[in-house]
Amino acid sequence: MTNSSSYVVPLKYAQVQPKLYRGSYPKEHNLPFLKALKLKTIVSLIPGPLSEENDPIIYKFVKDNNINCVHIPCKGAKDKKKDKKDKKVKERIKQTNDTEFSNILGNSKDGAIESNGNINKTEAEKSKKEEDNKKALKKVKRRDKSVPLTNEDIYDILQVLLIKKNYPIYIHCSNGELITSIAIACLRKMSYWSSVSIFNEFLQFSGNINVHERKFIEEFNANGFVPKDKNQEHYVEWITRREGWAGPRRLKFYSV
């Protein structure tokens, strides 16, 4: 029997609802913990499906524990304009660094630096400049990054998350941040969470949100979801019934 002290939770792990868990792509050292959750379903929001070729250790784990794996490919379409813009930024950074270094050589006699102290100082300044440029480039990429999910992807995820027989469920993306957070934010809309609460939770896991991600969540049409299973008894009890599809009501009345 595995000692509970040896359990290691996946990065960004949290409980979303009873028996519904979220986190990053599980590593081998996370498997004892996931086994303790007695999972029935793993929802993977990653580019490629889980297979014996891609990850034999995780593949063996799900097979040995009879876990159903649901793969929703979430690669995200490439934005040619963004790629072109990023390329220009990289070129500008390179030109800036090359120009600064050329100026240093030009200011020294016969192209030689006069002292080791100046060399060290210049290299430190150049290194700091490169680091600042990298951070700026990363910020530009995230700001312009498109949402790697569609409404149809979310509807496919909901087909799994709303059915009781699939529980316990672990839902994850590569790092447990952006893609999983978008999926959970849309799930919260199904439960009539306020926008403030939804985005506060989003920021806890993702750290920031760009205009495209915010717009996607705000405009997600929860009422557009059409469940394949029409039996309201099969749905989790914490979801609110929506117009146009069968689901349990928020309030239940019991005879005494």
From TrEMBL:
InterPro entries: Prot-tyrosine_phosphatase-like, Siw14-like. It comes from the Eukaryota. Gene3D superfamilies: Protein tyrosine phosphatase superfamily. Residues 106-139 are annotated as: Disordered. One of its GO terms (molecular function) is phosphatase activity. Residues 122-135 have a biased composition (Basic and acidic residues). Pfam families: Y_phosphatase2 (PF03162). This is Tyrosine-protein phosphatase OCA6.
